[in-house]
Amino acid sequence: MSGGALGIEIVLVFFLPLFLLHRYGHFRKQHPLVLFGTLLSWYLCFLIVFILPLDVSTTIYNQCKIDNEKPRALTSSDSSNQTSNSSVFPTSTPKVCHKPWSYIPDGILPVFWRVVYWTSQCLTWLLLPFMQSYARSGGFSILGKIKTALIENAIYYGTYLIIFCSLLIYVAVHPQWQLTWQGLQTISIAAANTWGLFLLVLLLGYGLVEIPCLYWNSSRHGYLLAKTYFKVAKLATEKSDAEENMDDAMEEVANINKSIGYGHPLRNSIDTILRKCPMEIQEKMVRLNTEDSGDESTQRTYPSKRSLVKLHKQVIYAGQRHSQTQVQWAILLEEAFHLEDVCKNETSASHQFVHSFLSSQPPGWLGKYLYTPTIEWYWECVLRQWCYRLLALLLSLLSVAVVWSECTFFSTHPVLSLFAVFIQLAERDYNYLYIEMACFVTILFLCVCVYSTVFRIRVFNYYYLVPHHQTDAYSLLFSGMLFCRLTPPLCLNFLGLIHMDASISHQQRVETAYTTIMGSMRLLSFIADGFYIYYPMLIVLLCIATYCSLGTRCLNLLGFPHYISQSDDLTSELVEEGRELIRRERRNRQRSEDGESRKRGWRERYGGQRNVRRNRNGYSELKDNDSPSDNSDTAQLTWRESGDHTGLLQDVDTISLDPSDSPTQRYAGGRYLSLASSQIHIFNDV
Q1: Residue in 118, 315, 342 with CA at minimum distance from that of residue 221
Q2: CA 399 to chain centre
Q3: Residue 310: other Cβ atoms inside 10 A
Q4: Which residues, at least 6 apart from 661, have a Cβ–Cβ distance to it below 8 Å?
Q5: What is the pLDDT of residues 369-414, one digit of tens each?
Q6: Cα 294 to chain center, whole Å?
Q7: How many CB atoms lie within 10 A of CB 258?
């Protein structure tokens, strides 16, 4: 299967970033270049993660071939000296090297890694920062947005240019180093990996503790419910702020829209801003502008182009925040209602899960036949918490193994890194499938700890990945930048953990194709022998700080509330506030569903006869005097679709059930017809 596994993985890996982009981005609303840049950056990073185990197995196979060629060459060179001693010192037969099922021929992986790595680096350092500023710009033309993006990134690009020139001067002043093109590439890679490793250790130290704790706490329904109340209270404040910002932006847009008529040169810019407003706001402003277009007596003040650019940016930001908080609020309410239902159903004797509110969507065949209320009760109330606890224990063991290996991977005699021990044991038997699975599980766990932190972290309101298609373009591009900067040093660190990086393990063996692209780190010995080895040991301190919630407590002291425990005063206040908000929303939804059920009952009871009567033509069966007041006992009722004196109640939902309201007569179809001669309907006040 020469290269077949590589082609299959290249195709299958594409669907993972596509799924994530569909979950967090919006294919219809966001710019195609933003979607393409984010998808390409995520795709390249996932390719590195999934293809690296194949590189490891191929390297081990190549090492086996070289080890078998050495005694064969020794035998051929010393054949003249081994005439009489051949029987005393018999030569060992070389071990057969079985080709792995995922073997990749020579020459393919170096080209592949070179294309993937340098493309991702060009994206993260050059294109994506420019696209970020372009997407966040409030300009009305392409040239205006490009100009704004270049100005904003001038400081950004200048800073990295100064750092690169400093490293270049550092290498040039040392005569023992020859400044070649390969050396420049190595310096660039070392600088990028150093920056990435600095951030990687911070995120990894947080994720190694937070991921197992997250699953362990997910098995505690009381903890989850209290934390959800806390989130509801925080989100209610954010939702209120977003609505106020939206109202302020719309008020300013309305004032400017009123002052600038259709013939003004800035009218195109105003129309561009209006298209970013909600649809009802657009219709209202167009109507008001049409009404005021003929009034030229009032003196108008016209804004400047720069103020319109600033307003455009403000409207875009306010609209995004308003939409995000609305969607998050609906999702969080459903989560809170579900957790309250779980707590109520835990004491149920019938062992059937009962929901407080009916789902808006009808259940599919899976929920109707397989996921029955009984199975749902056992999963939600019994099995789920034990599965989460077991998963938390397994993840905790992996976290301990990672922390131990990060502190001891530089030791090769004896081998102290646990992952290196596992790979070397499998290498003796050339069990390539086990090697690839062990590498994949290890690197996947490292990626989950790092990437989950990237998806969950929030830098105020500038960077925040929101699911359900609510992430803005700036955050999507920023996540692509982080992925491209974190993945290469993460994979290089993984190769160091399993002793496949010769620059760290100092072993004479065949290097992987990935490390050959990274270049020889011995050119910068203070990085290869110092920073790359001792800096990852800080993971121990970061794990302890995360377990003790030191960062969360510091943020609380600075005025950014985070959930710690209910013993904290601020946390308990927000939990109580969230509980009251959920009670209010539950009452509102209950009243709404009760009203809908009453309407449904009335429609089921009287809807059929009403539809039959509506299909008939209008008719009149009154007596010749055409007055229902002459003889009310024998007068016939009249259906007049456009009558002025006889009022027909068209909405059955507003029928009065009190017989003492006014003299009415009930029709056979469940309808009430007024016999009064007044033009005012008697049910208008209902």
Answers
A1: 342
A2: 24
A3: 13
A4: 682
A5: 788 889 999 999 999 999 999 999 999 999 999 999 999 988 888 8
A6: 49
A7: 16
